[in-house]
């Protein structure tokens, strides 16, 4: 998109927190969305995940449209689905600023927002006003299992799917439900009365024992009737440049870790699970690799920052080229094709 190419150098001269606020200002006013070229649905890109029909496999990852305030703009940009949140029960300011550090040398970004949220009531009002043309997912979070259940109950009927954010690495307590089988079991038991397409979001892992723990938690989830997963969240890391001195790494460095997690889940569970891949996808080739490894769809966020508001159109074009190069007619054929 020509306008974005012109202003991107200016945006990158600003502190990243200010750049984030400027982008949110523009998207709330649908400045980018209304200038985007609309393209019809391409049958080669149509797919489904957990029974949810998608015009294309590219979703906006959680963490950007935190309060349902730019959902229409994201639909304008052509995303196949949009994840709102993470949403907490009540207003929460998040961590002290600054929230972001750019890793320009490797296309990474450290996020230390700490799950700021305007709360369930605000998001319910915003999503009730939205007339999105794409399926909405809502990412829910909390410090306790009852808080998760409160958000889920408060937003009932507003989403096609739900991301259960059990793995945010930069909360005040640093505690995640994926580390405690008893806590995760309690959470899933509270959420079981809401059966409509919940996805558990796990962290990436660097060590074999962390992989084994993640797979064991996934087995626990399957035994309780939760077969859908988002792989992966950001990677926890110390970062003195942000207000909390701890953040989550996203962007290109995360891609091999997310891809490995998808491969491990496919090897362990096969077709018993549905997976959305997320982490460092910036090209159609990388999206194809995730789907070939077993993901039904992928989410992007840093790619939107790096490639601009035309990112979905570009990713779609690149993905179709990769499909043709591999002799495949559509993305559904790509899923698991690396086996």
Notable features of this structure?
single chain, 339 residues, alpha/beta, TIM Barrel, eight-stranded parallel barrel, four-stranded antiparallel sheet, 13 helices, 39% helix
Count of DSSP strands:
14
| CATH H level, superfamily name | Aldolase class I
Main sheet summary: 8 strands, parallel, barrel
SS-based class? alpha/beta
The CATH topology name reads: TIM Barrel
Distance between the termini: 37 Å
CATH architecture: Alpha-Beta Barrel
Beta-strand proportion:
15-25%
Give the low-pLDDT segments: none
What is the tally of helical segments?
Answer: 13
Choose one word for the global shape. Answer: globular
What share of the residues lie within helices? 25-40%
Query: How many discrete domains?
Result: 1
Strand order in space, largest sheet? 3-4-7-8-9-10-13-14
What's the SSE pattern?
A: HHHEEEHEEEHEHEHEHEEEHEHEHHH
What is the residue-mean pLDDT, rounded to a whole number? Answer: 87
Calculate Rg over CA atoms: 18 Å
CATH class annotation: Alpha Beta
Helix-strand layout with pairing:
Layout (H helix, E strand, L loop, with lengths): L1 H12 L2 H13 L2 H5 L11 E3 L2 E3 L3 E3 L10 H6 L4 E7 L12 E4 L4 E4 L8 H10 L6 E5 L4 H10 L6 E5 L15 H11 L6 E5 L5 H16 L4 E4 L3 E4 L7 E6 L3 H15 L4 E5 L5 H10 L3 E4 L1 H6 L3 H15 L5 H4 L5
Parallel strand pairs: 3-4, 3-14, 4-7, 7-8, 8-9, 9-10, 10-13, 13-14
Antiparallel strand pairs: 1-2, 5-6, 6-12, 11-12
What does this structure look like?
Helix 6 packs parallel to helix 7, helix 9 (255-269) packs parallel to helix 10 and helix 10 (284-293) crosses helix 12 (311-325). The protein has helices at residues 2-13, 16-28, 31-35, 71-76, 120-129, 145-154, 181-191, 208-223, 255-269, 284-293, 302-307, 311-325, 331-334; strands at residues 47-49, 52-54, 58-60, 81-87, 100-103, 108-111, 136-140, 161-165, 198-202, 228-231, 235-238, 246-251, 274-278, 297-300. The protein starts with a helix and ends in a 5-residue tail after the last helix. The protein has 13 helices and 14 strands. The model has no long low-confidence stretch (mean pLDDT 87). It has an 8-stranded parallel barrel, surrounded by 5 helices. A 4-stranded antiparallel sheet has the order 5-6-12-11, with no helix packed on it. Strands 1-2 form a two-stranded antiparallel sheet. The chain is globular, with a radius of gyration of 18 Å.
């Amino acid at each position: 998109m020509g306008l974005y190419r012109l202003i991107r150098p200016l945006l990158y001269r600003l502190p990243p927190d200010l750049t984030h606020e400027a982008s949110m200002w523009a998207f709330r006013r649908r400045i980018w969305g209304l200038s985007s070229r609309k393209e019809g649905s391409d049958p080669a890109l149509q797919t489904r995940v957990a029974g949810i029909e998608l015009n294309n496999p590219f979703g906006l990852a959680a963490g950007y449209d935190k309060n349902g305030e730019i959902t229409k703009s994201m639909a304008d940009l052509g995303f196949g689905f949009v994840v709102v949140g993470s949403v907490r029960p009540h207003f929460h300011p998040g961590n002290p600023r600054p929230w972001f550090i750019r890793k320009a040398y490797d296309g990474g970004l450290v996020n230390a927002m700490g799950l700021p949220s305007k709360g369930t009531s605000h998001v319910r009002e915003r999503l009730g006003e939205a007339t999105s043309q794409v399926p909405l997912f809502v990412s829910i979070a909390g410090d306790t299992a009852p808080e998760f259940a409160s958000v889920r109950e408060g937003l009932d009927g507003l989403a096609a799917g739900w991301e259960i954010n059990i793995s945010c690495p930069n909360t005040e307590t640093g505690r995640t439900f994926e580390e405690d089988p008893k806590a995760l079991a309690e959470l899933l038991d509270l959420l079981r009365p809401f059966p409509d397409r919940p996805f558990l979001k796990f962290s990436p892992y660097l060590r074999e024992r962390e992989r084994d723990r993640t797979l064991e938690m996934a087995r626990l989830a399957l035994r309780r009737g939760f077969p859908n997963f988002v792989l992966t969240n950001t990677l926890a890391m110390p970062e003195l440049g942000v207000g909390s001195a701890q953040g989550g790494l996203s962007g290109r460095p995360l891609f091999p870790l997310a891809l490995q997690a998808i491969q491990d889940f496919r090897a362990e569970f096969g077709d018993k699970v549905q997976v959305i891949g997320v982490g460092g996808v910036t090209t159609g080739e990388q999206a194809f690799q995730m789907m070939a490894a077993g993901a039904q769809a992928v989410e992007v966020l840093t790619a939107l920052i790096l490639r601009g508001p035309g990112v979905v159109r570009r990713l779609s074009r690149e993905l179709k080229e990769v499909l043709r190069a591999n002799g495949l007619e559509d993305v559904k054929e790509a899923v698991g094709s690396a086996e």
